[in-house]
Amino acid sequence: MAGKSASAPTTYNPSPPTQKKKQKQPIFQDDDWVRADDRGFHQCRPAFMRTGAVNAASGSAYAEFGNTKVIVSIFGPRESKKAMMYSDVGRLNCSVSFTTFSTQTRGQGSDHKEFSSMLHKALEGAVILESFPKTTVDIFALVLESGGSDLPVIISCASLALADAGIMMFDLVTSVSVSCLGKNLVIDPTSEEESDQDGSFMISCMPSRNEVTQLTITGEWSTSKIHEAMELCLDACSKLGKIMRTCLKEAASATE
Question: Which segments constitute the Exoribonuclease phosphorolytic domain (predicted)?
Answer without folding.
Answer: 43-167, 171-232
